[in-house]
């Protein structure tokens, strides 16, 4: 579930970056009409470009640090520039008290819930740091700090960013939503600055941050693939579980994961709606992957495990139940159609995505997995046996 969610996450990031690149080109060339294959090609270029950064493990810390600083720099530059140069500003009532429902749902509540997919997406990958546990010093302490730091920085920056951008909307909101560049924030920049080059520069800062996110997403999906293959949980586990001796990365797992992302992108050529459903799937599948160990923890007993440095006691138990309820909520509500009335062109096909993923998992389990899979305890036992054999020899 987690690996499928990471694949779909990488695909959604690649599409967002591809659309942004094509949008910048279209803004600079107004006569250009964006075709589906333009965005598809940009998608593949982004995926291939970011692939190479994960081929050498020692540069990843520098890439991660650079991305953080670029993200904070772009936040500061955009936050100051756009409101400062916008010729007009929206009223506070529009920003804080106006609810625009363009979904066709008669219920504003349902429209709001369906729209939560967009705000959930940036925070969908919080488990990314946990899959680097074997490569991090003192992971029991550093990984929770990384996760909580992500949430804190993300909340503060996105809150102020969103509010300032809404105040900086020039003209009618509907014009921004129906932008010819298919990138509303780029159109917002252009309307506020009145300058094509300036808008593209600001969007380039976002794209640079997004490329760092894509690189991190590649790291995440490759580690998931490698670690699960190491437990013989995937077909071809002998090939996928190897770490390159000089590059210091699981290069085979990385290559296969990126190849699957490239293949998933082909779906965009057939149906944008079907591809968009995978964005929803990346959110919910990851929630399910979080819920499974929480369920196991509650069954085993929270006090029957060794407590870590961030043990929260009763508050932690409450958080566990909140996670399970929220997972169930998103599984149901995020499967609703994005717009009404429902036609094949706007249908939410995420249920079909769930079905395909579960079908692949079940078939693999009965055909191969139940015979070859070994859990962590078995792996440690086998390692101990091998070590004893070496000592005896």
UniProtKB/TrEMBL annotation:
Where, subcellularly, is it found? Membrane
So where does this one cross the membrane? 36-56, 68-85, 105-124, 145-169, 189-216, 251-272, 278-299, 311-336, 348-367
How this chain sits in the membrane, per its record, is: Multi-pass membrane protein
- GO CC term (a single one): membrane
Keyword list (alphabetical) reads: Membrane, Signal, Transmembrane, Transmembrane helix, Transport
Under InterPro entries, the record lists:
AA/rel_permease1
Q: Which Pfam families match?
A: AA_permease_2 (PF13520)
Domain of life of the native organism: Eukaryota
Name of this chain's protein: Choline transport protein
List the Gene Ontology MF annotations in alphabetical order.
Answer: transmembrane transporter activity
Q: Which residues form the signal peptide?
A: 1-18
